[in-house]
Fold:
Amino acid sequence: MKYYPVNLNINGRNCLVVGGGGVASRKVKSLLDCGAKVTVVSPAFADALQHLSDHPCVRLVKRPYASDDLDGMFLVIGATDDMALNRRINADAESRQMLCNIADVPEVCNFILPSVIRQGDFMLTISTSGKSPAFAKHLRRQLQDAYGPEYARLLKLMGAIRKRLLAEEHAPEAHKPLFKQLIENNLVDLIRQNDIPAINRLLFNVLGEGFDYTELIRETEAPEASGS
Structure:
């Protein structure tokens, strides 16, 4: 099996999780982190899910799964320990041509979830194509320290620079050599060291005047601070 790698935009989309235990709790939280609206169906719910009952994007439905729970959903995740139920969820989803993942059972999924390292907008995914999730998690633990919060700050900076260049009517193709120079001159290492004078010297050498690291980062955080 060769999987087609893709990143899904599920912001504001309706997603279903079937199951009420620890695995379901983790799946719900990962969906919420990406902006989904999540319905959870199960005869019982673990405490972690109960604590999400007041979340505006979570709906807990306390009863057994029914096929029409899939109506209006973008994707479904089965997180139960009942293999017959998991296969039924998969069959129902396939009949609707829906995205379906059954936790830890890749043979009844039409997509699988990789192990993820996330730092802000930076995301590194690791997959063994379902052959060994344990090894994928092992690799994630090994790589976690190598890709720290400096990568989130790097992407904030790059996004702010790109936005400013576009506002100055630079052609997008003209950006590539500029960003290449920044990256090849160890910008991420300077950010890791929080060497702001050196960062600003590099920005000036590559981009010219008007590009200050602290100001650019502040621009990326302003919308969050205003709640927009």
User: Anything to note?
Assistant: Residues 1-113 form a domain with the Rossmann fold fold (CATH 3.40.50.720). DSSP finds nine helices and seven strands in the chain.
